[in-house]
Structure formats: structure tokens, C-alpha cells
């Protein structure tokens, strides 16, 4: 089986910065058509304005994907541009601290809305269109791919990350549930759980707490924080035909950090 994603069309959410941006740029380099989607229109244009040229392989979509109409518009824009959708990467994530003992703290609800419900709704709407496009083409199976971005925080508890941890655990279970539901229709669903990878959230955190860098490295068997480039080929593998018999899996890319129970700063 081939690792190639050349000629395929992908939607990448959370693509204005960090890991989502890195995945999108990598997919472009590998010959895919990429719709970069994010709420931050200015960030999208700052990072990708030089790549957006008429009918080229890169397009931008700005909007709040927590809104169902926005998701529908994203899908329509992708189909209008490329006439198909083969790959969805749900890389839109938010990390926030929460007080586990405060009933007034709404961070758990916010994390579930952003990290779980947005990915679920986008996945549902995209999967339905993948199935419809396959049926229109007379194909028995859609052969689509969904890759969710999660975190090792789903399994490694820190009280101040209650909302984020719960949301990531829910994303993992959503991945498994959708994998079973969509397998008969030819759509594979997997997740990548990150840890010790330089996401936009971790970068921002390290600006406030520079001493955490050494602590995170010490809690990681491979002894470093990885750049997003260490993650993108795992996503490419899951999106390619090389993973044709892989579905419902949550693959950790964390330098071995999830093997430890050491007290260390939050997993982003």
C-alpha cells in the first residue's frame, strides 16, 4: 500500500497555526488539495496568503465551526473548489485550565463544545457528503478518512485540566464509535494523541512558564519537546492507503511520555 495522498482533497480544521497549519502545509507538499479552515481569518491570511493563487491546491475558509451552518458552508466551499472530499483532519483544539471543585467554572462545557462537539459535527456532515458523493459516482464504498487530534491528557489526569482531559477522552471514544459506525460505508476514523509536541497552546504556555520546558523534557523518555514536523507523517500515514486496514485507533505521538506517571506540566 502507498503512503501517497497526492491528488486527494483534505479539509484541515484549526489550520491557522501550530499543528493544524503544519499538517496542512505537509499535505500540500505531498500533492494534496487542502482547505485550511480556522476561526482566525487574519491568522490564515498571514500564514498562507502567499499560497492562495486562483484555482491552486490551497484554499482558505474562515468561520466558527461550532455553528452547523458554518460547517455546511465549509463543506460546500470544498466541493465547489475540488468536487470531492477524501480526508478530514480535525485539528481544531482549545486548552484551558479549570477549577474541578467550582460549579461556576464553565471551562468543562467550553472544552466539550470546542474539542468534542465541533469535531463530531464536522465529522458527521463530512462523512454524509463522502457517502453521497460515492453513491453519486456509483461506488459501493466512500473510501474516506477522518483523523482526529487528541491528547495523552485523556489518560493522564491533572486536576486543573479537568475540562481538557474529559474532552480528549470523549474525542477518543468518539473516534472508536464513528469508526465502527462508518466502517461499512468505507470511511476510516482514527486519532492521534499528542504529548510533548510543540502545539500553539504549548508554545503560548511556555512563554508564561519558561521553566516548564525542562520539566516536560524530563518527563519525556526521548528527552525533548518535538516540533509539529514529528507528527505530520503519522497523520499522513493514517490518511493514506498504507493504513487501509487501520480504524478506530488512538496512536500516541509523545516521545514515550504516556508511559510515565511522573508529575509534570500539562500534556498539550
Specify the helix fraction band.
Answer: 40-55%
Oligomer: single chain
Run of helices and strands: EHEHEHEHEHEHHHE
How far apart the termini lie comes to 32 Å
What proportion strand?
5-15%
In CATH, the architecture is 3-Layer(aba) Sandwich
Q: Work out the number of β strands.
A: 7
Characterize the main sheet. Answer: 7 strands, parallel
Estimate the global geometry from the Cα principal axes: globular
Please, could you describe this protein's structure?
The protein has 268 residues and is of the alpha/beta class. It has one domain: 3-Layer(aba) Sandwich (Rossmann fold). The protein is 42% helix and 14% strand. The radius of gyration is 18 Å and the shape is globular. The relative contact order is 0.15.
Structure in a nutshell:
The protein has 268 residues and is of the alpha/beta class. The chain has helices spanning 18-29, 41-48, 68-82, 107-136, 162-182, 200-208, 212-218, 229-239, and strands spanning 9-13, 33-38, 58-62, 87-90, 145-151, 188-194, 250-253.
Short descriptors:
268 residues; Rossmann fold; alpha/beta
Break the fold down into its secondary structure elements and pairings.
Layout: E1 9-13, H1 18-29, E2 33-38, H2 41-48, E3 58-62, H3 68-82, E4 87-90, H4 107-136, E5 145-151, H5 162-182, E6 188-194, H6 200-208, H7 212-218, H8 229-239, E7 250-253
